[in-house]
Amino acid sequence: MRFAPAAAALSLALALTASVSWGNERDPAPRAGVLIAEGKSALDAGDTQGAIDAFEAALAVDPGYTPIFIHLAEAARADNLQGKAIRYYREALDRDPQNLVAMAGEGAALAEKGALEKAREKLAAVQSLCGETCPETQAIEAAIAAGPRTPVMTAEATLPETQGVQTN
């Protein structure tokens, strides 16, 4: 019983210290930071595959840095791979459940894919966290208003009309 007050104070101090240090976002590893910058510039230049390659290399260098998954998701969305983008956003949300950028990105990707009801659920979750005027809420609303993206067919096979069927 003599140590109960000291033990309680020590556990309170440790709990507060752990929660404060856990909430701080860390910087990526230096090499990963360079690769992330390369990926961002490639994505800005329209080279989605180059951006994906750079972001995947950054993920291999620093697998614990969660924002890399968001960058990968943005590159996948730019490449019209909404399903892959949703998977990356969900990985980021598994690591940081309160990440508004990942929530908004997933909601927009769901809307682009055509899952408008799930996108509206994400919109409600983001609105409850940051309100009506935050950029994340507006991004999901714009994606829902735009509706699903129509897939681009790169090659459509058209069969020539047959003149008539000849039988022997």
TrEMBL record:
Q: Which SMART domains match?
A: TPR (SM00028)
Keyword Repeat assigned to the entry: answer is no
What keywords does the record list, in alphabetical order? Signal, TPR repeat
Positions annotated as TPR repeat: 32-65, 66-99
The family database entries (InterPro entries) matched by this protein are listed as: TPR-like_helical_dom_sf, TPR_rpt
Q: Which residues form the signal peptide?
A: 1-23
Protein name per the record: Tetratricopeptide repeat protein
Tell me what organism the protein belongs to. Answer: Qipengyuania aquimaris
